[in-house]
Amino acid sequence: MPKKLIVQKFGGSSVANVECIQNVAKRVVDYKKKGYNLVVVVSALGDTTDELIELANKINPAPSEREMDMLLSTGEQISVALLAMAIHKLGFEAISFTGAQVGIITDTSHMRARIIKINADKIQEELKKGRCVIVAGFQGVTLTQDITTLGRGGSDLTAVALAKELAASECEIYTDVEGIYTTDPRIEPKAKKIDEITYDEMLEMASLGAQVMQVRSIEVAKKFNVPIHVRSSFSRKEGTMIIKEVKRMEEVIVSGVTLNKNEAKITICDVPDQPGAAAEIFKELSNNGISVDMIVQNVSHTRKTDISFTVALSEALKAVRYTNKAAKKISTGEVILDKDIARISIIGVGMKSHFGVATKMFEVLAENKINIEMISTSDISISCIIKKKLVETAVKALHEKFELGK
Ligand code: ADP
Ligand code: ASP
Ligand code: MG
Known about the structure:
It is a single chain. With 406 residues, the chain is of the alpha/beta class. The protein folds into 3 domains: 5-176, Acetylglutamate kinase-like (Carbamate kinase, 3-Layer(aba) Sandwich), CATH 3.40.1160; 256-260 and 341-401, VC0802-like (2-Layer Sandwich); 270-338, VC0802-like, CATH 3.30.2130. It is built from 11 helices and 20 strands. A hairpin with an 8-residue loop joins strand 4 and strand 5. The two termini are 44 Å apart. Magnesium ion binds next to loops. The site of aspartic acid (ASP) has 13 residues, from helix 5.
């Protein structure tokens, strides 16, 4: 019988220092001893990616995206080589590769590249020789040999895409918590580990701020039905399975609470209440590659109205620049940037068939004297924009009210 293949991904915190790398090597070798074939995807050591971004910004506050990819991809190249050495030290065979070397071909959108195809022949050849194949996460190469990266958290995507391409029997994502929890366990210690979660719920949680899994990796897993096991590198306990359907008798109404502190709010005052005003503003933003999220327009009483929207915090200054440009064209009032906001969301597939969930959320926020600045809803989630400093209080209060710790 052919040996079973597992893809394992170890995040930055799992390879933060020498001991951690040795620990990962031991885990990999344990699986090897059990007879598995292994492809191991690794992230950059600890906070390396953040540090490289900081370094680049010191040299040039608006660095070229191509050069950023050149720089950021080095983080993962360090990890793969060190892990291969650690496995050799334990007496086993391993070989490390960059994304380009194992044929991860992407489009040319630097810093957010999409995988077009994977030519996995090289990986297959090395597996046949009995070696553990260690692949640098988060990176690929264009058809014209430029190095690209896949967006923050992109090693998750590398792992899922390889699991699909190689038809692996499992895709394990090793991190610094024991799985997916009802909310970020670092903020609410009463958070509970979820045994099984659907792609749709995980996608919603990730999009709304639970950075434990990269959004695009879940999109790919859902599309190709790749089951994912999220678990801890520091314990042997079973983690959370992310799958198509879960065996629950009835849908839970609320299954998780998320927070996102990486957004900013832009308000344009006194926008003329006339056809084409909103189009003018948002066209200017989208033409310049800025994606806008929540949008709220007030009712106008004076033929003028305020429009507020949120953008990623990292793009806030750029967004203000283009908003001002559009605002001038259509003669609005002032443009105000507020970075002191956060998004708090509740998620659950059962919301579709229950009412009163939003009311309960608003009541909890009111009881805690938290003002709601913006609201948005989807089929399976409700989000509110609130003051940043109140977001931890909101997480705990909602987690308690919806009885998620039980
Ligand atoms: P890695 O370095 O392994 O990729 P990340 O930092 O990207 O790890 O993701 C793990 C972190 O995600 C955890 O340390 C935790 O603080 C955070 N997190 C946020 N929301 C959740 C959640 N609902 N369940 C588990 N972890 C969460
Ligand atoms: N090192 C990259 C990042 O920090 C990719 C990853 O960790 O998944 O975003
Ligand atoms: Mg991550």
